[in-house]
User: What shape does this take?
Amino acid sequence: MFYLKGKFGLDAKIEQIGIENCFVSEITIAELKFGAEKSEFVERNRQTVTDFQSEIQIIPIAGSLDFYAKEKARLRKAGTIIDDFDLLIGATSIVNGLVMVTNNISHFSRIDTIEIEDWTITP
Assistant: This one.
């Protein structure tokens, strides 16, 4: 979301590592579409999401469902459950051997074996 809003210099970071090296879960696209629909500027934000989709590689969640199920059970037993969509996004990152880029470190770090970077922090 920060990228679409032009915050934290994320466009420069993506340019530096290459858009071809960036991926998003199809769940992230669903969340962006929801955000557009509930916004004040629906048409403009729909177009922003559509443009974003055409620039970035979208990863389906199907290959992540086994990891998701095991991790959800583990988190529930530990009493540290997180939102299903976030768990699916994190699972997709892990199963595909990717680094999860988020500023919600405390939330996503509950997922076993996840590798996280926060690009909103200035080095």
Notes: The chain is about 50% helix and 10% strand. Residues 45 and 82 are 27 Å apart (CA to CA).
